[in-house]
Design brief:
The chain is α/β, with parallel strands linked by helices. It is built from six helices and six strands; from the N terminus they run H-E-E-H-E-E-E-E-H-H-H-H. The protein has a six-stranded mixed beta sheet with strand order 1-5-6-4-2-3. It binds zinc ion.
Amino acid sequence: MAFRLQAVLLWMMAGSMIVLSLVVFPAQSQGQRPVFQTFQAGQSIPTYISPEGPGNRPGDRALAELALEAWTKASNGTLVFRNSEEKRARLRLYWVSAQSGLYGEMRPILVQGRRGAEVFVRPEIEGLGGEIDAAARADSLFRDTVVYLTCLHEIGHALGLDHTANYDDIMFFFGYGGDILNYFQRYRQKIHKREDMAGHWGLSQSDIRRIRKLYPQPDGSPPKEPEIRRGQ
Ligand SMILES: [Zn+2]
């Protein structure tokens, strides 16, 4: 019991100290280790996606579901998400309005004494920056790309992945610099229509390797090397 309480306190402290975001906050760690592992491999994760929110468009739920599916595939099936009502969900995704230039944010939560995470995604791109704004206004698929990749990144945090300094990674932190417009455009250039997104995960080899290490196969076999190139 004492250990459990200690673990819970540690989790809450981590949640208050480590605010993970794409833009505003400096990376807390440059290492490859997870901050905290939220879930267990093979465990079915009760998941809730808010049906509405500021700037939310009808197809945005599908983008969030695609992001969950990408992590399931990347994990080789050890990550499984199932729909749940909000209060029981250990992974919750909300659509929020603009705040401080953030694309998204993740906050650890406790759900009936168990670790969970709330993910906040901003579906309204307007106001994020001149060239990103312009690209999103001119091209709805670019706008969808930004929302999808933000879901992917923030869910990555929810699963326990921290930032990297590798521009190829979905867990790359913009605070390290680099061309943000190009970061989104390189994914946008792989797709011609919305349906193409299911065939392009938006994850790097390193992202896949890390999630497989964090959520290993139940038989204890070592993480497999990423072998699927088509899906990226
Ligand atoms: Zn982040």
